[in-house]
């Protein structure tokens, strides 16, 4: 089976970003890991769930992967790192994958872990997970052959599948807890039971969460930490202060505002790490609701695109930490990315012309039509982007009202009720377009109630055909060509408009060691992490 090469970490063009990336990583000369201690882990926003089978918000994933695990982890070079699976074999025709599972593993409630749990989890993810329909589209059967053997039987090869088995992407959860229930509403999603290095103990909503060391973890001697206290700090300025004062030890994705990064990076006790995001590089952009009568018109979407100056977003909201996006695939994914797509340069004259030609004339107040905009409630860059969009679109006669809400309300409004006009958010590209990008454009992934899926309600048979062909194509060159063609069509149709290929980062106290040893960095299980005394 073909494994996608590691996403390369490109340089980001501004002086401030280059300075950050060039900063040397701090390492201690201490030879052996230190046992004990409490890690104070900053997470924002507070999650809505702790098992990422449906809600894959970054805060959910960062916490849950300390409790629940996947079949494999991935080293920084993307080589496999056995977790609940110790090995696998692939049939000559690529249509059968057999996993041998780790012996003697127990769930945190004492039940034995086995093949039934894996088969149940993966089959559940195929229907509940935002990316599950694409990830496991070719899998016809998940078979528990015996307690230590699971076989995936495929209708066609899936050249990306072995990259999709990390805990953050395909968590394994206990069948005896979820069988017979609606897994997405099971109360254990808030009190998870896993096999991981840390055991869930307490969730004091609005304040903190406690994870305790698992004394029966299968990797003997680990974890080194006694506990993790997860702190929820909603205010961006307060988060930066918490790092400066030592109140928290680590936070990931973008735990502080980009405007604070350069200053915080100069604090002697604080380090900034940009590795550990190759498994899921993030890209920011706009999703239009194509069921909205205005945004259903391609000319209106094109006009919005021409009215947005991406350079302003990059410099004034992301402070240069990223690159201007050209389409739905992040530049860091050098294998599949192409810049040879239709573009929409900043051009207010052209934007106004398109709206005039669409028959949307200005009224006496200069307004063509009014819409509501919902920023993703993570960090502060989405709200700031929304404020910029309100000002930018007013120049072409589109009146925008901003609507801010908590994460649970946002997910319900956008993905369940579909009561929105357009949103701006940051989306995980994942390590392969089938895993991270297809979900937004595949018509079969329009599934109300499933977060971070095809919110636009986009459907194009040519795009569906390209995506489905790429799912089974084992020739790398041909598969790359399919995704290049896909990017061209999507950029022309513009159901979504991508703005910034984001640079994500981890902020950490330098006494914390081994926090980023895998390609998913701080989203991994932290079994190897320890605190210097």
* N-to-C CA distance: 45 Å
**How much strand?**
15-25%
**Strand segment count:** 21
CATH architecture designation of the domain at 282-502: Roll
Number of helices: 15
Can you list the strand order of the major beta sheet?
8-9-10-1-11-19-12
What is the molecular shape? globular
Q: What is the gyration radius calculated from CA atoms?
A: 23 Å
The CATH topology of the domain at 282-502 is what? Dipeptide-binding Protein, domain 3
Arithmetic mean pLDDT: 93
Q: How are the SSEs placed, and which strands pair?
A:
Elements: H1 15-22, E1 38-43, H2 58-64, E2 72-74, E3 80-82, E4 85-90, E5 96-101, H3 115-128, H4 132-135, E6 139-146, E7 149-154, H5 175-178, E8 198-204, E9 208-213, E10 227-232, H6 236-245, E11 250-251, H7 258-265, E12 270-273, E13 282-288, H8 298-306, H9 310-316, E14 322-324, H10 348-357, E15 369-375, H11 381-394, E16 398-402, H12 407-417, E17 422-428, H13 433-436, H14 461-472, H15 476-493, E18 496-502, E19 506-509, E20 512-513, E21 530-531
Parallel strand pairs: 1-10, 1-11, 15-16, 15-17
Antiparallel strand pairs: 2-3, 4-5, 5-7, 6-7, 8-9, 9-10, 11-19, 12-19, 13-17, 13-18, 14-18, 20-21
